[in-house]
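Notebook p. 47: complex prediction with adenosine-5'-diphosphate.
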Amino acid sequence: MNERPRLTVLSGPSGVGKSTVVAHMRKEHPEVWLSVSATTRKPRPGEQHGVHYFFVTDEEMDKLIANGELLEWAEFAGNRYGTPRAAVLERLENGEPVLLEIDLQGARQVRESMTDAQLVFLAPPSWEELVRRLTGRGTEPPEVIERRLEAARTELAAEPEFDVTLVNTSVEDVASELLALMDVV
Ligand code: ADP
Ligand code: 5GP
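Predicted complex, structure tokens below:
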């Protein structure tokens, strides 16, 4: 058991199953605190403000960045996303396990600013399966899928930068591997 829980960062290409794995894990272990990011992206059906994201305007995002309120932020496929700093630090101070689900650029920034963070890469079983999952989710129009697949090529190439790689073949298996890495079980 660690003295102080580490910050864990889960990253990986869009469509690999990050949200699915995290949702599964938190159903059984609600004590794992997942940071809620701010984004300029529009909500998908069913997404709630303050639960899945804080949906903000471009101007609001400009302010969060200018005021130094974000631990990291990045532009991804045409929208900006960032992690509110205060909530993360507060949870870590309280000794709670903290999880960030963010893109590669964000993971790199966290590695610089929080040197004891644990960086976990979620990889697809194959490229074909990634395309299938991203397309099958049915939440993005074809041009957005194209953009995300382009970003995915860069993200997959960055896998060696991470401390650990988990291959998302089974959601249950990956969720329990992630819990073990976070010292929750
Ligand atoms: P991300 O959060 O990484 O963008 P999602 O969690 O939205 O990805 O998953 C993308 C799609 O892949 C969803 O339709 C989800 O149901 C499916 N999916 C996730 N994990 C698996 C898995 N292990 N096997 C098959 N399908 C999966
Ligand atoms: P989506 O639009 O599918 O919810 O997320 C797109 C990408 O943005 C995903 O790779 C997701 O992990 C990433 N993302 C979500 N929140 C943040 C954040 O706060 N910071 C960064 N850098 N990336 C984020």
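Notes: The beta strands are 7-11, 33-34, 38-39, 54-55, 70-76, 79-84, 98-101, 118-123, 164-167. The CA atoms of residues 72 and 106 lie 6 Å apart.
Next step: compare against the earlier run before touching the bench.
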